Amino acid sequence: MAVRDEKTLLFDGACGTNLQRMEIPASAWQGRDGCNEFLNVTAPEVIREWHASFLSAGATVLETNTFGANAIVLAEYGLAGRVAEINRAAVGNAREAIRRHGGPAYVAGSIGPTTKLPSLGHIAFDPMAAAFSEQASALVEAGADLLIVETCQDLLQVKIALVSCFRTLERMKRDVPVMVSLTIESTGTMLVGTDVAAALAAIEPFPVFSIGLNCATGPEGMTSHLRYLCRHYRGRVSCIPNAGIPQVRDGKTHYPLSPEAFAAQLSAFVRDDGVSIVGGCCGTTPEHIRKLREALDGVAPAPRNVVETPSLSSLYQAAEIRQEIPPFLIGERCNANGSRRFRDLLLADDTAGALRVALEQQEDGAHAVDLCTAYAGRDEKADIEAMVRLFAQSVRIPMVIDSTTPDCIEAALKIHPGRCLVNSVNLEDGGKNLEHVCRLAKTYGAAVIALTIHEKGMAMTVEEKVATAKEIHDLAVNRYGLRPSDLLFDVLTFTIGSGDATLVDAAANTLAAIRRVKEELPGVFTLLGVSNISFGLSPASRRVLNSIFLHEAIAAGLDAAIIDAAKVLPMSKISDADREVCLDLIHDRRGSGTESPLSAFLRHFSNAKPVKEETAGDGNLPAIPPEEELANKVVAGDKEGLEDLLSILLSRRPAASIINQMLVPAMRRVGDLFGRGEMLLPFVLQSAEVMKRSVDYLAPFMEKAEREEGRRILLATVAGDVHDIGKNLVDIILSNNGYRVFNLGIKVPAETIIDKARELRVDAIGLSGLLVKSALVMRENLPQFAAAGLRVPVLLGGAALTEKFVAQECVPGYPGPVVYCADAFAGLSAMRRIDEGTLSSTVFLEAGSAPAMTPGPRGAAVARDNRVPAPPFLGPRHVDGIDPRELFPYVNEQALFRGRWGYRRGKMTAAAYEELVREKVRPMYEELKARGVEENILAPRVAYGWFRAFAEGDTLVVEHDGRSWPFPFPRQKNPPHLCIADYFRTREEGGDVAGFFVATIGGEMALATRALFTSDRYHDYLMLHAFGVEVTDALAEYWHEAMRRELGISGDRPASFSGYVVQEYQGSRYGFGYPACPDLSAHAAVFDLLDPGRIGVTLTESMEMAPEQTTSAIVVHHPQAKYFAV
Question: Which CATH architecture describes the domain 319-589?
Fold first, then answer.
């Protein structure tokens, strides 16, 4: 039986998960730890044993151990020249395992996504295609029964892989099934933002064997996406999930879904939804596959009722060509020959302006945007490549590639990730160009607009139009392999406003031709450039005529229209008189008089002005009630006119009623919007400022008892911790949701918390802390609270806390509720549960785990023969007077804008997000930079030095002035078992040199942020505080580069900022308190060595540095040193 004939295919389980549990000799890695694919050559018996374990469990398909066996990934291990060898060996290992097992099974050649995201510009089409082609060729030559392009995270990567695979198979004259398996994150999209409908639209034109999902989540997280595929795709659907969403337990990755639960969920997909290919991804063991095999006994894939919806797609979303309310609207304004504005922007090389034209059409309701860059004197190919690259990342609707030049069309199809529409083909040259374009459309999965133009010119009569359409259809479908649904026929229309007697029936002929094409060529779509009908007429009359003609064309069966969507009028907005005169002209209806329909039309519209549409800003629109307006102001963060509005409301209801019945519900709506990802944190803070100003205005109108209403909560950052940004955000959110907050500040000992809790009679206590040590302090505080008689709920929050730690380590030490709060809104939720009387302590339930297997030993393979550079001096030095402006190029703007400031894209369109950054975020950033310099808020200072050192086991011993300081570092429990001490020579190897620094931007920043917080300027407080944190990180990056320069190892300076993020330079710095060296007690030795007190930096009792915006690090020069976590 051939693989295509199998009703159900059962794939094997995880590769990496199971290999990590096996006994692999250290020699097998040959210094290439992590390159599992290399084991095909160096440890074939290990790979065969892995395969055999799944054959014994009942798998009928083995995936080859070639996920990363392409030149792009293997180059990272120096193995780019061994692609064919490794892939051949992998297929051979699977075949040998099947032979030894003795049962029938198939071999699927695994093709992973590489490490590059082409949609984000990491790699171009051709080099990625070359890598995929080389791997696919090797797998097929070695005898793979299938190819599976899996764990796809980027739609353009999928497209490149499919083009490469099918070209390779055509060249080799082989018919091997090709599977595609997407990875949909828990966010509901692929990594770069593609939803499953967009992915299906782009993939289904290719002759793939199956489409499905693998990795990222367990079966449950795939349900809705699988059902979409099962309902809209006629081919086979696969499901190869993880054993649940991974968790970290005791420093190790754990997959929680048991074999029984895994099998039950997957077999249900087969039985109920018609999935016919199943297997396991990360975390799945042979036992998972064995249970799945048992669950599938007697189960056949359910029949599927598939409704195909031919669509186009962008990188992000799909658009069905057959709209429920037609037509499919294609924006026409990004055309260098049809739009003066777009042409001028193109000629000025104003790509941002050109993009705005596309985005405006998107906002106006277009379903796709037509792009034409052909213009005399311009390089069409260069222009279309630049614009497609920009549009692909920023425009959420699909693209129409408007060009008749095959080179330009192919260049665009190589760049755009989604399914495009090519505009256009015809028979003007006898079909030569049509052949080129149709073959490109077939190769890249595109659809095509076909114009009814033949060798003698444009088809004018109905018969000519239909005959030309049929000839194009025959060539495109029967010769070049396109499907009827890949074709959109434009039967052409010509102006009926010129007075040309030969064109009086042009509109009627077009409508009749649309009906005929739809009847005689089933499955195709029809399209028109609608505005051609009114060329030469006045703007006011054109808009009305275009809209009426579009309505008539839709009634005739028109599916799509190239038109400015913003200028389409609904029929309800067109008067009966306008409608009649337009219909007379369209159908050439003549009355009893001698006046022609065109003359009557021109006379009717002679004094007409363009129709004006009402907008929300029109003065005649009804005003909203003040109660609703106040709620809108809170949600919008709008303070303008707030006091006047509140004074109106005070004349209608008491102040307390305004707060409790209007302001508090509005803030709860803000919280809900934030929780759904529909509002960004900075706007939440602006809403809180509106709330605070409103409450302050209303306070004098309230009785004292009313002002003191609301549950009370005490907030404190625990002893030894100086970080308060998280706690202050909790203060902002709670205080503006009707709760009375008492914020005790930072470094608050347990005794003070107890005294204040009693004095203030609080209803809850909230403890915060950033550090691992702070989590331990919280655990120690709770028994003290209990001994003091406190029983109120305690809410715990901080970066180092986990739900498990709170449930298992903190809850047992206190008799009242102890609750883990991941963020400020979790704190708000906890307070609401206190109000409702439903709050209870955090509970953490352990899930079952897979049986442990003995991990094999692996060496770190850190080179011992690297050159030790000579430091310029030994001992400490202190530097001040650093110009803050020198730090700004080192600021990680993405981390600041998206991470700390909270301006994440979320559900915003790319264009809307870009506008937000351009209009709001970046100006604010520039203003803070100027303020930091002009007001001396930024005062960078550094204490640093170079010291003799040597490694002694896991300890680095530093020597200076006859003294020595040991720096013990932790070692990774799992391969590659790294430790910072590994990067230094031992005393026997001649010793080494280590650098240290302490860098601060000074204490003025803390004073400035405190002033903003106390004056209720919450938004400004968050923005300035986060700015200070990122400038501190920039200072560390800047000074690390200065120290590399001193050592003479700065020659490989990164070419762009992203290079600093991924450490494209020699050596590394490791911050104390961070993953590779988490123990802050090392600060005692660092302060002995550097004396940072001379730059104004001190240590707290918990070894944390003050001022808060201070950082420290050890500087390592070894070429292999990079960030890692223990």
Answer: Alpha-Beta Barrel (3.20)
* Topology at the third CATH level for domain 9-296: TIM Barrel (3.20.20)
Q: How far is CA 16 from CA 222, 266, 282, 855, in A?
A: 22, 21, 7, 12
Sign of the Cα torsion 754, 759, 762, 767 reads: negative
Tell me which fold the domain 703-836 belongs to.
Answer: Rossmann fold (3.40.50)
Quick one: CA torsion of 524, 530, 535, 537, rounded to 10 degrees?
150
Question: Coil, helix or strand for 541?
Answer: helix
Tokens 């400004």 belong to which residue?
Answer: 1020
507: closest CA among 457, 539, 465, 468?
Answer: 465
Top CATH class, 627-699: mainly alpha
- Residue 738's nearest CA partner among 715, 712, 705, 714 is 712
The answer to whether 138 and 87 have CB atoms below 8 angstroms apart is yes
144, 109 in Cβ contact below 8 A? yes
pLDDT along the chain (1126 residues), means of 10: 93 89 87 90 95 96 96 92 97 96 94 90 93 98 97 96 98 97 88 91 98 92 92 96 80 82 95 96 95 96 93 94 90 90 92 89 90 92 94 92 94 97 94 96 98 94 97 97 97 91 93 97 96 89 94 95 83 87 93 84 84 38 65 81 84 80 81 64 72 84 68 89 72 82 88 93 90 80 92 88 88 93 84 88 63 33 85 94 92 82 72 84 92 92 96 94 93 81 93 96 89 80 89 94 90 69 81 82 93 91 84 93 78
The C-alpha atoms of residue 311 and residue 252 are separated, in whole angstroms, by: 44
What's the pTM? 0.59
Query: Is 875-891+918-1116 the same fold as 627-699?
Result: no
Report the run of H or E that residue 760 belongs to, with start and end. Answer: helix 750-760
CA–CA dist 155, 175 (Å, integer): 24
Q: What are the extents of the domains in the chain?
A: 9-296, 319-589, 627-699, 703-836, 875-891+918-1116
Chain centroid to CA 922: 21
C-alpha span between 951 and 403 (Å, rounded): 65
Judge if the upstream peptide bond of residue 884 is cis by omega within 30 degrees of 0. no
CATH superfamily of 875-891+918-1116: Vitamin B12-dependent methionine synthase, activation domain (3.10.196.10)
Q: Exposed, middle or buried: residue 241 (CB in 10 Å: 0-12, 13-18, 19+)?
A: buried
Residue 1074 pairs with which residues in a beta bridge? 1077
Whole-angstrom Cα distance, residue 69 to residue 79? 9
Coil vs helix vs strand at 194: coil
* Whether the Cβ atoms of residue 426 and residue 451 lie closer than 8 Å to each other: yes
For 540-635, where are the E strands, in sequence order? 560-562
Token digits for 22?
């096996």
User: What SS3 class is residue 740?
Assistant: strand
Distance CA 163, CA 261 (A): 38
Q: Phi/psi of residue 936, each to 5°?
A: 60, 30
DSSP bridge pairs for 10? 278
Beta bridge partners, 147, equal: 109, 178
One DSSP character per residue, 711-738 reads -EEEEEEBTT----HHHHHHHHHHHTTT
Residue 729 near residue 700, CB atoms below 8 Å: no
Three-state secondary-structure class, residue 146:
strand
